[in-house]
Amino acid sequence: MYPEYMAESLRKVAQTRPGRLELARKPAPVYPPMNAEERQAVLEGFHPDYEPSARRPVRVGPNRGETLTTEVADLLESHSWLRSEQVDLEHPDFETDLLIIGGGGAGCNAALVAMQEHGMRSMIATKLRMGDSNTIMSQGGMQAAVSATDSPTRHFLDAIGGGHFENKPELVKALTEDGPAVVKWLEDLGVVWDKEEDGSMQVLHGGGTSRKRMVSCRDYTGAMIMRTLMDEVRNHPDMITIKEFMPAVELIMDDEGRCAGAILYSMDSEEFFTVKAKSTLIATGGYGRLHIRGYDTTNHYGATGDGLVMAYRAGAKLMYMDSVQYHPTGASFPEQIAGFLITEKIRGAGGQPLNKDGELFVFPREPRDIEASAIIRECVQNGGGVETPSGRLGVWLDSPLIDMLHGEGYVAHQFPAMYRQYIRYGIDINKLPMLIYPSLHYQNGGVEINERCETDIPGLYVAGEATGGLHGRNRLMGNSVLDYNVFGRRAGRYAGEYAKSVKLGRLSLAHLDKFEQELADSGVQTDLVTPILLPSYAPKDVKKRRLVRGGNVLPGASVLHNRLHDERSGN
Amino acid sequence: MSAAENLAEERHITVYIMGKAYEVPAEATIMGAIEYAGHQIIRGAGCREGYCGACATIYRLPGDYKIRTGLACMTLVEDGMTLAQIPSVPAEKAIYDIEKLKPDVSAMMQVYPTIFRCVACNTCTKACPQGLQVMDYIQAAKRGDIAAVMDLSFDCVECGLCMLRCPAEITQPLVGILGKRLYGRYLRKESPDLVAKVKAVEDGAFEAEYAEMMALSREALSQRYYALDSE
What we know:
Helix content of chain B: 25-40%
Number of strands of chain B: 5
Radius of gyration of chain A: 23 Å
CATH topology of the largest domain in chain A: FAD/NAD(P)-binding domain
Largest sheet of chain B: 5 strands, mixed
Number of domains of chain A: 2
Oligomer: heterodimer
Low-confidence stretches of chain A: 548-560, 564-571
CATH class of the largest domain in chain B: Mainly Alpha
Strand content of chain B: 5-15%
Number of strands of chain A: 20
Number of domains of chain B: 2
Distance between the termini of chain A: 26 Å
CATH superfamily of the largest domain in chain A: FAD/NAD(P)-binding domain
Structural class of chain A: alpha/beta
Number of helices of chain A: 18
Shape of chain A: globular
Mean pLDDT of chain B: 94
CATH architecture of the largest domain in chain A: 3-Layer(bba) Sandwich
Shape of chain B: flat
Largest interface: A-B, 89 and 78 residues
């Protein structure tokens, strides 16, 4: 339940509700959307990316000299877990056609397509359990141009505008063009889409969409897709091998510069295993658990940017690593769910962000970076935020409006997870608004690919959130769900095709020695060992006692102790 | 009250993790408490937002003989709680070809025949941290009511706590997935608009417009974007 001191603010919200309801029933927007200049101004003033300490130049690797998000630059200027001379590459522990690093949506799609279209065998190596990924947590839906009034080309324009015209157009074309087919493919696998009585897809608006284009499975969209894909992957144990709790920590190359597999690390026994593979796909997702700029995150426990580090050391170029997505609506209260995602579908269905006086201050469906910046501005500059008992700020997201707009029971049916999230704390979102603040949500940048998911390195493919370029510097809602499906499938197709013909040379980890040399030559001094694998949320005093013991701790124990998180967020 | 004042007042309680006592913040979730105690969770954490089912937990309260169940990321600690994480619940997933099944009781008989051992004790339902009517969907599966299996199991996060408690050792979450897949695959009306769109893309209906837009300058593209009407 909300603390007593918020009652006055809640009363104001209730007071303005009838007027806002009337407004929402009219065809005109409830608040004027921003034009290009207004958008630029709010971004420059309040987006966390624009703070002076948010970026710095990176000193090593393919992007050397480029300005990147500070935490990312730290991550890339780090040591490997491995010393190349200590790894036996002559006798690989496993061999496969396609090694897929990451068991989320992109990885599962790729394994299925490589099998179906090319008869290729895959091994999926994943850090936690199969399906443990951001995929499973996506709530609101997936964009795809499936209605009569919409078209893939309109979807293209919305995505490019939302990304500030910096998206790689050929990727956006692939995304939007494959959209309808992906909806159909998933339905044929058994995904239960929300539909109208006549069988047509139920579609809703998202931020920055000019047509209702969001297809969904109540507010369990990602869970439904992931569990369907996972179930299907597990129906083919002879073709797809699954290695759980076995994250990759480095890529293996061959002596002709092709990617040839990876070294896996067993989370259980702290052993390393080599996998020789004809082609390799990085589908490791993003880095939300690095808590960029100390923000709370909506992300999965394993989202620590592992794929970026591995690809970078092997020589793959990154793109837009100066750009981070903050979801406009993360939970701000209660403390226990701080940072949790409040799906954009709430605003798509008519939920409105309000300041402490119950007033609208922004059009609810601006693109995400604009909306997030406007909320930060309202709290930080305009004093329109409500302070929580733990000192967080937030604005209201008026959910009771939704049933008033769509009929009683709509929230209960469309947002069962969200309702359950809040009722535990005595907050009935049918009757009370949610207190929200932007939360770290998505890695806009990543490994540069083309529309075949190819990188600069032959045999190395990347798909999903680990890639950069598709969304420009800002992703629209629902395009990441489409992203991992479209590009996961494409990766399976092209990596599978490549695996059929390639003849690998001698395996090598020389790229690690080269990278280590570059670190030394550039004068980088760091004790950070990556991939990080898992963040640590132990309290400071516990960590201090660990450091006393330190010096000769096992690699696992030292790496699992997440240095970045300590320093930036002060937790 | 300022944030600092509030923090100074933070209340602590005692919980028992693997039998050992720890002082943790009274407002913590079980997952938060385990981490506060200094444990690095590997098995037993996933999405941390109630979607993935990785953090199945059993616990007891003082003076109470009952084994209770919950998700560690969602359940709040109570004073004197005795906690244990369930690292995984073994279950045999059946191998099947969805294309060769019919959306009726025959699929259930073929793929998960163990459901017919259900003794309707309702233990699964009592164990469900999502509050689902688990036994009801198993009964629906036995009747071949695939739509009911889909609807009643929709919010399942596959934590496996029902399986763990089931005296008949039924794999309820897997039955739920089969029901949902059968429903999605066979029991929905097809969307004519969707079929038409897929075909239009295949026929290259949008190629010319893509080519035209991809040739535009940033300024021209921007103009076109800001001129878009909204539905």
